[in-house]
Amino acid sequence: MYLKYGIDGLKDKSRKPHNIQPGKVPKEVEQEIINLRTTKRFGCNRIRFRLKRLKELSLSTRTIYKILKRHGLNILKCKIRNREYKRFAMDKPNQMVQMDILGPFYLENCAQKNYFISCEDDCSRKTASEWSERKRSVDILHVLEDYIVENGKPEKVMHDNGKQQFTSKIFRHFLLQRNNIKDKSIPARYPQLQGKIEAYNKIVKNEFLGVENIPNVEDGKRMYSMFVKAYNEEREHMVESMVTHHLKCFL
């Protein structure tokens, strides 16, 4: 709390609940919801996550939906023509994970390259991700090992075939010979096949890099670790909210 609010963050806080009852949402909060909907095209779940993490406000998705509906924003018009995509999802956790590297990105007044290396389960959306100054094969394997320790060994790893870190001998040896994990590479020109990890990268850019004031690398790593923890524990994913046959996925 000190890093975020300074000395004021150490003061005793009111025990009054932060939850806001329907019909009592302040105008400035309601305007923030409208802005997130119109400028970012966020859905109710993402708006709820943003308000809770950055504003420390707890609103139900039902309340947010009522506000959007009152302003005629519950349904947004598509900006492009509808295109048909065949959506796929694994039935159980650890059948397949998707891996990717986001970056480089830079902190203000610093030429040091930084990257986010991420591993996300295709079914549960559980994610292991780390801030790294390098993107070697050993750095990628470190993230994959963290995922395995926390969630178990996946049957298959999907990755972009265009990145040499995923095609190196050390990476393939770890997957195929040491752990009997299938190696599934996809052409770099078809990023939509990795839609889930690409969606996570977009969330990181919009909801972490786009809003956080990161003073230095060490604080940034600590802040990002908290972000990943909130993503895994607090964010409601589509796979958890939709009542489909994909809800065979239990942790």
- Briefly note the CATH topology name of the largest domain: Nucleotidyltransferase, domain 5
> Secondary-structure element sequence?
HHHHEEEHEHEHHH
What separation lies between the terminal Cα atoms? 31 Å
Strand content bin = 5-15%
- Per CATH, the superfamily of the largest domain is Ribonuclease H-like superfamily/Ribonuclease H
SSE-based structural type: alpha/beta
Q: Which CATH architecture of the largest domain would you pick? A: 2-Layer Sandwich
Q: Helical residue percent?
A: 25-40%
Number of alpha- plus pi-helical segments: 9
Biggest β-sheet description: 5 strands, mixed
How many beta-strand segments? Answer: 5
Supply the CATH class of the largest domain: Alpha Beta
Number of domains: 2
Radius of gyration: 20 Å
List keywords for this structure.
single chain; 251 residues; alpha/beta; Nucleotidyltransferase, domain 5; five-stranded mixed beta sheet; 9 helices; 5 strands; globular; disordered C terminus
Task: Give a description of the structure.
The chain is α/β, with parallel strands linked by helices and 251 residues long. It folds into two domains: 2-70, no CATH class; 97-248, Ribonuclease H-like superfamily/Ribonuclease H (Nucleotidyltransferase, domain 5), CATH 3.30.420. The chain has helices at residues 2-5, 27-39, 44-55, 61-70, 137-151, 169-178, 195-209, 217-233, 238-241; strands spanning 97-105, 114-121, 127-132, 156-160, 182-186. A hairpin with a 5-residue loop joins β2 (114-121) and β3 (127-132). α3 packs across α4 (61-70). The chain is globular.
